[in-house]
Design a protein that fits this description.
By secondary structure, the chain is of the alpha+beta class. It has helices at residues 9-31, 51-67, 97-102, 175-178, 182-187, 195-203, 216-219, 222-228, 253-263, and strands at residues 37-39, 48-50, 72-75, 79-81, 87-95, 108-115, 118-126, 131-135, 141-145, 148-151, 165-168, 208-214, 232-235, 245-250.
């Protein structure tokens, strides 16, 4: 267990709470207009990046540098800055860039604070939806919307017979591999909308989220929120979700174990 000083939670939670508000204001005042899109993969697939992704990351980095100048930063668009600090901020300036490009409001700004490599605080901010999800400790997280805070808690009554499953493979899992998990395919009843699906699990709206090929900036900010809400999170082969990759999130350990078994044919 890491030796993070729990008394420092309020310092960083307060910073992220204000940053969420600043990011939403920044979007509506500066970025809610025409933007440019380019493809990172250039003919080898489709991985869009926009001028807004880069603007958001510059904005977030500037806020962190001003408040915590000695901390390390890892961002999707501008790489990493290293120091001897035990603290690292991990940034996904726009999680769900494809949604952003087509005007779907489910995209978000994701930021985590890691201590010695372990995510301890996470923010998922949804500027268009005007709400954000943030944990204040390892046992307390809230969703804030229209100025009102609601404590996050997974659906503790979820059972395998009545689960709500949100899943998407986004082209990463081949059809041949999907044929090896027919029970999973049958149980996929709800769309998977980037970080919003993980946030909905923390609210108790869905009970399982399954995704492929997450990078650290996709999942690190969500790990502390999910855990504080009582959720279980791991990779498909039951390793620490901080490793990123293929991710499974569940509302309790029992159904998590059931889904790990169902995913076993494609977990290697």
């Amino acid at each position: 267990m890491i030796n993070f000083d729990r008394k420092k939670y309020p310092i960083y939670a307060s910073f992220l709470n204000q940053l969420a508000k600043d990011l939403t204001q920044f979007y509506h005042s500066k970025l809610n207009r025409t933007f440019k899109v380019s493809n990172k993969l250039k003919g080898k697939g489709y991985d869009p990046v926009t001028t807004s992704d880069r603007a958001f990351e510059k904005f977030i980095r500037a806020k962190i540098k001003k408040k915590f100048p000695s901390h390390q930063v890892i961002g999707e668009e501008y790489g990493s800055t290293s120091s001897k600090s035990d603290y690292t901020w991990v940034i996904d300036p726009i999680d769900g860039t494809r949604s952003y490009v087509i005007g779907n409001p489910t995209w978000s700004n994701l930021i985590s604070l890691n201590f010695k490599g372990t995510p301890i605080l996470g923010l998922a901010n949804f500027p268009v939806l005007k709400k954000y999800y943030l944990n204040y400790s390892d046992k307390l997280a809230y969703v804030v919307a229209e100025g009102k805070k609601k404590k996050l808690s997974v659906n503790k009554k979820a059972t395998f017979k009545n689960i709500k499953v949100s899943a998407a493979f986004h082209g990463w899992l081949s059809l041949n591999k999907q044929k090896k998990i027919p029970k999973i395919l049958k149980l996929m009843q709800f769309p998977c909308s980037d970080a919003l699906s993980y946030s909905h699990l923390a609210e108790g709206r869905v009970d399982i989220v399954i995704q492929c090929s997450n990078k650290i900036w996709d999942i690190h900010p969500l790990i502390p929120i999910i855990k504080a809400a009582g959720g279980i999170i791991s990779t498909w082969d039951n390793r620490d979700a901080a490793n990123a990759g293929n991710i499974l999130v569940s509302s309790n350990k029992k159904i998590h174990n059931n889904f790990l078994k169902l995913l076993k044919p494609v977990s290697k």
